[in-house]
Design brief:
- The chain has 85 residues and is an all-alpha fold.
- The chain has helices at 3-17, 26-37, 55-81.
- It has a domain at 56-85.
- It has three helices and no strands.
- The protein is elongated.
């Protein structure tokens, strides 16, 4: 690309960025049309945590399950290595 073309391109970008009115994106137009008749309700920054019974116990159960599977795979691989062919 020549230097003149680069300057023209830069001018076009500056001209477009300095435009007084910018058209909203298609998603913004869709949401504006949808919310015109049915505005969304307030949404908290962070949602409420789900109640899963005793949350502490379930995290330990999943940790024990993962570690148990890892130990099982290690033992299986060790057993297969010591098998005579």
């Amino acid at each position: 690309m020549s230097e003149k073309d680069e300057e023209e391109r830069e001018f076009d970008i500056r001209w477009a960025d300095d435009a007084p009115h910018k058209e909203p994106s298609a998603r913004a137009r869709m949401l504006a049309a949808r919310w015109k008749d049915n505005p969304p309700g307030p949404v908290p920054f962070r949602g409420e945590p789900e109640h899963r019974g005793s949350a502490g116990r379930s995290s330990w159960v999943s940790t024990v399950m993962v570690l148990g599977c890892v130990v099982g795979v290690i033992l299986l691989l060790g057993y297969l290595n010591f098998q005579p062919y």
